[in-house]
Structure formats: C-alpha cells, structure tokens
Amino acid sequence: MGTAVVRTLVAGAAVAGVGAAVVRYRQDLAAAQARLDAVDRQVIASRFGPVEYAERGTGEPVLVSHGIFHGSDGGLLSVRDMLVDRRVVVPSRFGYLGSAMPTDASAADQAEAFVAVLDRLGLSAVDVVGISAGTGAAVQLALRYPDRVRHLVVSSGNFPGSGTAQAPPEWARVFYSDPAMWLLKVCARPMFAGLMGVPDGFPRGPEDAGVMAEMLESVFPIGPRARGAVFDAYVTNPEINSYPLQELRVPTLIVHAVDDPLASYAAAAAGAARIPGARLVSLESGGHLQLGQADRVRTEVSAFLDS
Length: 307
Prior knowledge:
The chain has 11 helices and 8 strands. By secondary structure, it is an alpha/beta fold. An 8-stranded mixed beta sheet has the order 1-2-4-3-5-6-7-8, with helices on both faces. Strand 5, helix 4 and strand 6 (149-155) form a beta-alpha-beta unit. Helix 3 (107-121) crosses helix 4 and helix 6 crosses helix 7. 42% of the residues are buried. The model is unreliable at 8-12 (pLDDT under 50).
C-alpha cells in the first residue's frame, strides 16, 4: 500500500472520527435538553428579575438551595432520595436556567429572591437544605430570616476554609461551556468525575455507577447554567469566609463525607463547631455526591426535620 493511500486512509479515518464525535455531541445535548424540558418549571417576577423554580411532592415544605452546575432540575434530582415525603421547592439560583443574573449580586440577594418565591407560594416557614455551592444562600436565608427557617440542613457544604477558584474568571467562562465539558466527560471521564466530586475508588457497584452517571449527566446543558457557575466560583463560595456562622439561631444539621474532594470535611467540621447546637453527620465515604450513603442520609435528615 503506497504512502499516499495510507495518508488518505488516515485522513479519512480522522474526518470520520470527528464526524462521529459531532453526531454524538449533538445527540447528547439534545437528550440533555429534553431532560430539562421535561421538568415543570415556573417563573415569578422579583426585584432581581425573573426567578425560576420547580417543585414536587406533598407534605411539609422544604426549600432547596441547589449546588453548582445545577438549577431547579438538578436540585430536585439531588434530594430525590433524601426528601421522599416532603413538598420540595427548588428555585434556580442567580444565573441558572430561567433565573436572572443581577449585576453585583450576592448570596444575601439570593436569599431575598428565595423569600420572593416563598411569598408567592404562600409559605411562611420552611425547612431549608443547602447543597454544595448553595450553602451560602441557605445560610444567608437562615441568618436574615430565622423566623422563616424551621431547620437548616447543609449537605456537602461549602464552609469557611474550603478551596476557592484560582484560575481567572475569563478561563472559567471558556471552560464552563457545553463543548469543553462534554469533551472532558467523553475523553477524560475520570477527570470529569473528579471535577464533580467523585473520589478515587468509585463507583463501587452498579447502584453507585447508576447514581454517578445520572448526576454527571445532570449538569448538561451547561450553557444555561454557565453564568451561575461562574458566580458561584468567584462570588458565592468565597463570600462564606466572612459569614458570622456563630450567629445562626436555627437548628442545623451538617452532612458531609470525610473523603469529599471538593468541599473540605475539615472546614465542615470547623463550621459545625461555630454554629450553636449544630450536629455534624460524618459519612465515612461517598465523596461530594455521597455515593452509597442514600439510606443513612435519608434517615438522618428525616429524623432531624421531624424533630
């Protein structure tokens, strides 16, 4: 076979490979958009602009402050196994999905937007769950409106002393995109899983693998979440270092895995020590997604919210 023929075949294979990747990318993004469109999301007007929310279930109301790269859809997914007999309300935080990204916003502003949702729904008091980067807004809500927060649960939370973004925001604006994140997911899945907080050694079985795959896919499409993710990385997460946790006056439960590679367990333990009466539930494994810990988390959270 001549050199020219070999070069032609290699070039053809490369083109075919790129073509197949483009087809898969489009299929994956279409599937992600379909999942998002299947979630019944509502929008209210507020002084911060549109605020989107989704809800499910019946029972005692719980407001969920979702984590980074999520939104109302991902928030519902994150607490699906935790809150099985409650009315769950999940606003999309600033810059996520259908919620506005106000200029010079703060987590305190986000707490005020939460109040706007509660007022619209006629909810005078709720339990609150803050997840990961949603910790700041959940804590601000409890600090500013203790009469409206019955219990505060922080799951895989960002506490003072946790790591914050080091790269310039401009880099994040490029990286937090569907093409970049999709390529990472497809070509370097262990790295992508690590970015989402999965520790080494996971998944440990089919159930873990299923939950992990679902959670990793849940961040797509990235596009309508990107502004919120940048806001979380460079504003919401660093802000919590200045919060007066010792002034919290609502019953607080912190659930955190000791092997969480994203949010420091040591920082969570130190945060728990600063909050009067707070209880720390230490999970021996499971990482940021608390893989394999669903039963224990559900039991602990249910007992706490019923107390």
